[in-house]
Design goal:
The complex is a heterodimer. Chain A is mostly helical. In chain A, about 70% of the residues lie in helices and about 0% in strands. In chain B, strand 4, helix 4 and strand 5 form a beta-alpha-beta unit. The chains are: A mainly alpha, B alpha/beta. Chains A and B meet through helix 3 and helix 9 of A and helix 1 of B. Bound molecules: iron/sulfur cluster. The site of iron/sulfur cluster (SF4) has 13 residues of chain B, from helix 2 and helix 4.
Chain lengths: ~300, ~140
């Protein structure tokens, strides 16, 4: 029991994923600044932001709306992200604790943060937050099927092994999945899915700063907003880690393998940051069409190619 | 200096409240986000919701209609929050001070922590004002 709690709260769960996620959040902001020829924030900026919100700022509860739900939603979201992160990172770091959820567990745990954003936004009683929540809902409806097809294709590629550790092992034996044509298509689909899951431009309709002034999170302040931030840091680490584990043969943590592992994660985050910096926000209608027609089509093509073992 | 005030100082999120300005100050504020001045170096960020604000930056004169709204925004912001009066209009009322709708200046409506004079203030003046505000934290 103690070991499981250690894995959940310290390594590779809450604490570890939070710290790495914070550093990746800095990387994201720094690259954004460099793209715009700015200097960008200092290395520890995400941690200053987090600690300021956690320790200094007052937490305001909405006068109208359901206060308990408003407070519980971010906590649930954080635990969902941490649980998903633990299940993704344990096989990646080659730690065996006896229980291994299959990839469907990861899939369902990964939807929890977005769902809690919706619940929290609706509980705040703010009209802008509910517009944000309804957009988030539409976005989930559009990308979730694509994400499921992505998982299905990966499982199919791994000879229908459902466990993440087996998927990684398969790649260790027969080369990373991304080296095939279907793997490349799946990588494209996967990157756009996690982009939408992170709520990064072009899929940031739910918190559109300029029109909804932070949308779903408009009423959050102080400690609870710090938890929302932490959830996002963790997601920024575990989603690229998932993609690396599924397609780019995971991590090999011996010798120079550590450097490769870091480079793989940074490459995926860099790609996401560049997509975010070179695209405008889509209308929610366009985002839905993009996933329902474009990305689903691509995922289905990838599945067919996998059957033909291409 | 404690950890708390250090973190607060390093991460000031700015919410921009535009009163009845001539709009020039509002344009100048965006200048400090550009490559040349880049206030993100100091960890500052423009935020869209007063709930996330650490600094409320008030530009333009405050007229009868703005007054209750300014009070409301100040009330909505999560404390501790600092107020900066921006431009001649924010500090004293400027050219609008003798108008019939004038209800300011800002410091008679909400407590002000820093004044940045100018019409409009240069971006350098704004950075200097904000960094002086940082030193007082
Ligand atoms: S201070 Fe000058 S530039 Fe700024 S709003 Fe007033 S009149 Fe316009």
């Amino acid at each position: 029991m103690g070991e499981i709690l250690y894995h959940f709260f310290v390594y590779p769960g809450l604490l570890f994923a939070g710290v790495i996620g914070g550093l990746l959040a800095w990387f994201d902001r720094k690259v954004t600044a460099q793209v715009q020829f700015r200097k960008g924030p200092p290395l520890l900026q995400p941690f200053y932001d987090f600690l300021k919100l956690l320790l200094v700022k007052e937490t305001i509860l909405p006068a109208r709306g359901s206060r308990a739900t408003f407070l519980i939603a971010p906590i649930l979201g954080l635990f969902g992200a941490t649980a998903a992160g633990t299940f993704i990172l344990l096989p990646l770091f080659n730690i065996n604790i006896g229980f291994e959820g299959d990839v469907m567990v990861i899939f369902y745990l990964l939807t929890i943060p977005s769902l809690t954003y919706i619940i929290g936004a609706l509980a705040s009683g703010n009209p802008l937050a509910s517009v944000g929540a309804s957009r988030e809902m539409k976005l989930i409806i559009s990308y979730e099927l694509t994400f499921l097809l992505f998982f299905a294709a990966i499982v199919l590629k791994a000879d229908q092994h459902m466990q993440m550790s087996q998927i990684i092992q398969m790649q260790a034996q027969s080369g990373p999945f991304i080296s095939s044509l279907s793997g490349v298509l799946l990588f494209i689909v996967g990157v756009f899915c996690i982009q939408a899951k992170m709520g990064m431009v072009p899929f940031d309709q739910a918190e559109a700063e300029t029109e909804l002034s932070e949308g779903s999170f408009i009423e959050y302040s102080g400690t609870v907003y710090a938890l929302v931030k932490l959830t996002r840091y963790i997601m920024l680490f575990i989603l690229p880690a998932l993609l690396v584990g599924f397609l780019i043969s995971g991590f090999n943590l011996s010798g120079t393998g550590i450097i490769w592992a870091i480079l793989k994660i940074l490459a995926v985050v860099l790609l996401m940051t560049l997509i975010r910096n070179t695209n405008p926000r889509l209308k929610i209608k366009q985002a839905m069409r993009f996933f329902l027609i474009g990305m689903n089509g691509l995922a289905i093509v990838a599945i067919i190619l996998t059957y033909l073992s291409l | 200096m404690g950890l708390k005030s250090f973190c607060l100082k390093k991460s000031l999120w700015v919410y921009h409240f535009a009163g009845a300005s001539c709009n020039n100050c509002d344009i100048e504020i965006l200048d400090v986000l550009t490559p040349r001045y880049d206030v993100e170096r100091f960890g500052m960020q423009l935020v869209g919701s007063p709930r996330h604000a650490d600094v409320i930056l008030i530009s333009g004169s405050i007229n009868q209609r703005d007054k209750p709204r300014l009070k409301e925004v100040y009330h909505q912001a999560s404390k501790p929050v600092f107020v900066v009066a921006f431009g001649a209009c924010g500090c004293t009322g400027g050219v609008f001070a003798e108008g019939i709708t004038f209800a300011g200046p800002v410091d008679q409506i909400v407590p002000v922590d820093a004044y940045i004079p100018g019409c409009p203030p240069k971006p350098e003046a704004m950075i200097s004002g904000l960094s002086k505000l940082m030193q007082t934290i």
